[in-house]
Amino acid sequence: MAFMLKRVSLLSAIALVASTLGLPISPVQSITPGTVQIDGSSTVYPITEAVAEEFQKKGGGRATVGISGTGGGFKKFCRNEIDIADASRPILAKEMAACRAAGVQYIELPIAYDALTVVVNRQSPVNNLTTAELKKMWEPGAQGKVSRWNQVRAGLPNAPLRLYGAGPDSGTFDYFTEAIVGKPKSSRRDYTPSEDDNVLVQGVARDKNALGYFGYAYYRANTNRLKAVSINGVLPSAQTVRSGKYQPLSRPIFIYVNAKSLQRPEVKKFAEYYMNNASRLSAAVGYVALPANGYAIAKQHLQKRKVGTVFAGDAPVGLRIEALLQREAKF
């Protein structure tokens, strides 16, 4: 886990310096034979990176894992530039259309559940927020108006409210804005955005007046620096996700495998290794593993090359684990 977080920190630093200096970061131009190329969600990154490390150590082949955000990953995926897209939400209708236009077919594989976590600095007195209060601070109308904590709720500190959140190419941004504000991508813009969750971790950890949101694994790896905020009185945990109590911020996370890439032995081996070890590794990095029958269904879809999605081009909010499995079983 420590090595993985160091790699995330290095990627974050490179991205931050490049962004600051206005330097371009060269995109992947095309799929490279012999190498499994993965890109997309920073939320899913810790699981995929753990899988890739083990796969390579056991002589399975070479795998590279990037962080472009879910939306950025799907752009590359639908341009046939990568073999696998990491996604913190289901594929959207516009992405389905882009893949269809490029002749890219895909196998959708749920790999775990995430408790999307709202965090504050360890020194913050804030312990609980309601979804209504989150909406009050994140909705577009809050921009330039809700700038202090006591404007969110009477009794909170008369101190600057500094926000850190997912960037617009992030699936976390899409999910959070729909779950909290009521419409995907509907958010104030005067906050610090990043598709890399580690950048957000660093920002909140340095500022006692900050608040941010990102995947549960990044909170779990930084509990000495951050404090999770309960939402409507419920803290994020494996137990509250499984019970369905942590709503509306629990969500399934996925990988999407290019069906044509699966014809290459290294991609087939990697995808099979991923699904055989997703339960163990998703729990190890801090996410909530699916029930055993969930992975069994996903493995069947992979084996039978079941292309397409169980979703209708949108990302439903509050989908409980059992409801996801029912969709998968009927597919």
Biggest sheet descriptor = 5 strands, mixed
User: What is the name of the CATH topology of the largest domain?
Assistant: D-Maltodextrin-Binding Protein, domain 2
Overall pLDDT: 91
Return residue spans where pLDDT drops below 50 for at least 5 consecutive residues: 1-29
Order of helices and strands: HEHEHEHEEEHEHEHEHEEHEHHH
Can you name the CATH architecture of the largest domain? 3-Layer(aba) Sandwich
Which of globular, elongated, flat, extended, rod-shaped describes the shape?
elongated
Helical content band: 40-55%
**Can you tell me the CATH superfamily of the largest domain?**
Periplasmic binding protein-like II
The rounded distance between the terminal residues' Cα atoms is 34 Å
Pfam family, one: PBP_like_2
Function: Involved in the system for phosphate transport across the cytoplasmic membrane.
GO molecular function, one term: phosphate ion binding
Signal peptide: 1-30
Structure overview:
By secondary structure, the protein is α/β, with parallel strands linked by helices. The chain folds into two domains: 190 residues, D-Maltodextrin-Binding Protein, domain 2; 129 residues, 3-Layer(aba) Sandwich (D-Maltodextrin-Binding Protein, domain 2), CATH 3.40.190.10. It contains twelve helices and twelve strands. The strands form three sheets. It has a five-stranded mixed β-sheet. It has a five-stranded mixed β-sheet with strand order 8-7-9-5-10. It has a two-stranded parallel sheet with strand order 6-11. Helix 2 packs across helix 10 and helix 3 runs parallel beside helix 4. The two termini are 34 Å apart. 47% of the residues are buried. The N terminus is likely disordered.
